[in-house]
Design goal:
Blueprint (H helix, E strand, L loop, with lengths): L12 E4 L2 E4 L26 H7 L2 H23 L1
Antiparallel strand pairs: 1-2
């Protein structure tokens, strides 16, 4: 029987010259294969809510807030399935 797999854990890395470079050494053997799930870090400049709100009218902000609530509700409903 295979040994129990270590739990998943986040690893910070940078993409440099076509390769992912972890910020810290990983506890892996040379040549060991791993599964990778990439999650991009949000760019704060893209999600500056004050800047976005200033650029749009109050109606747009209300519609966006309503859409986010609906999206959050649908995700919660999926989790309960």
């Amino acid at each position: 029987m295979r040994a129990m797999l270590a739990p998943m854990r986040p690893v910070e890395a940078r993409y440099v010259d076509g390769q992912l470079k972890p910020d810290r050494p990983l506890p892996l053997q040379p040549g060991e294969r791993v599964g990778v799930i990439l999650v991009r870090r949000p760019d704060p400049a893209r999600w500056d809510l004050r800047r976005i709100a200033a650029a749009s009218g109050s109606e747009d902000a209300e519609l966006a807030a309503a859409g986010m609530d609906g999206w959050a509700d649908s995700l919660d409903a999926e989790d309960r399935r």
